[in-house]
Design goal:
Blueprint lengths: L2 H6 L7 H12 L6 E8 L2 E8 L2 H7 L4 E7 L8 H19 L6 E6 L10 H7 L5 H6 L10 E5 L4 H4 L3 H12 L3 E9 L9 E5 L18 H4 L3 E11 H6 L15 H8 L11 H21 L2 E4 L4 E4 L4
Parallel strand pairs: 4-5, 4-6, 6-8
Antiparallel strand pairs: 1-2, 2-3, 3-7, 7-8, 8-9, 9-10
Length: 317
């Protein structure tokens, strides 16, 4: 899958690591103004992409800043020790971008729609976040060593509230005056293997809905007036990207490799007696079906939900 494929389908790539892979695949060269560092841990590999200037920002399609990608396939497993060690890596990477005094006030924002599984990561994280700001204000005697003032909110999405998410957050920021906002959001990935196994931490803020082509007002230092760290996990993948591996150029669609939604679309159009065709007849028919499959991909911009293994229309996100 090359640069033109993503441009033609208007597919957004949230992971800076993948954006770099796509651009490099087009040029075959290192990208001027982009620096990459790598670190390896027992249960995770870390890639740090630093976009250093505006020229690189234009090429990458990402704001100037630092993007830390933690790839940890064992996240999807059930090994508590591995999860703990991955958590320590996340904490270490996050601390590199925070650079705050111990008594700073931090606001955690869970972006997304809690009614839509692929968009509910932010609200779910907020529900598991230990908030302490009220303790500092009303019961300081209960504070434990090492506690920070932390508040959290899940502002919902425009379709639920009628209010731009960034406007809701800005109002809260102006009231409680945090030194830092940490925004949690679902991302879209190019590589299906990165779904629910990768974490990106960036000091550039976030554009809600960008992964599914639903651009909204940015949540960043410029709009909020305070530093914003974005933490995201890929939860969705564009159907054209998933299906591209099943559609070799000029070749025959491999039905068995297709997502269920696309498989059902193709099978529903198989002619009567298909099961009785010989191999040559089947291949000839499937070649004719290729154009119809490609038309389906162009007209059905869908998001793949790995967790439930179903396909939903992106307009519901």
């Amino acid at each position: 899958m090359d640069f033109d494929f993503f441009r033609n389908f208007s597919i957004s790539v949230d992971l800076a690591l993948e954006a770099r892979e796509i651009v490099q695949g087009r040029t075959g060269q290192e990208i001027p103004g982009v620096r990459v560092d790598r670190e390896t841990y027992s249960h995770a590999s870390v890639t740090i992409v630093i976009i250093e200037d505006k020229a690189a920002e234009s090429v990458m399609g990402k704001p100037v800043g630092t993007y830390i990608t933690i790839e940890a396939p064992e996240i999807s497993g059930r090994d508590p020790k591995a999860h703990h060690e991955i958590g320590l890596v996340v904490a270490r990477m996050l601390s590199r971008l925070m650079n705050l005094p111990e008594k700073s006030n931090i606001l955690v924002v869970g972006l997304g729609n809690w009614n839509a599984t692929p968009d509910a990561l932010g609200p779910k994280v907020v529900s598991q976040t230990m908030v302490t700001r009220h303790i500092f204000n009303y019961a300081p005697q209960e504070l434990q060593p090492g506690m920070r003032s932390v508040s959290a909110m899940a502002p919902g999405v425009l379709g639920l509230t009628g209010i731009e998410t960034a406007e809701v957050i800005k109002g809260v920021v102006e009231k409680i005056k945090p030194e830092l906002v940490i925004a949690i959001d679902s991302l879209a990935a190019k590589n299906v293997a990165r779904i629910a196994t990768t974490i990106q931490i960036a000091n550039t803020g976030v554009s809600p809905g960008s992964g599914v082509g639903n651009q909204r007002m940015g949540i960043n230092a410029e709009t909020l007036g305070v530093p914003v760290i974005a933490i995201g996990v890929p939860i969705v993948n564009s159907l054209p990207v998933v299906s591209e591996s099943s559609l070799p150029k000029g070749g025959i669609p491999n039905i068995n490799k297709m997502p269920d939604n696309l498989k059902e679309f193709l099978i529903s159009r198989l002619p009567t007696g298909y099961s009785n065709m010989n191999l040559d007849e089947r291949q000839k028919y499937l070649k004719k079906m290729r154009s119809k499959v490609e038309q389906f991909l162009e007209t059905k911009q869908l998001g793949l939900i790995i967790e439930q293994e179903i396909i939903i229309d992106k307009s519901n996100i």
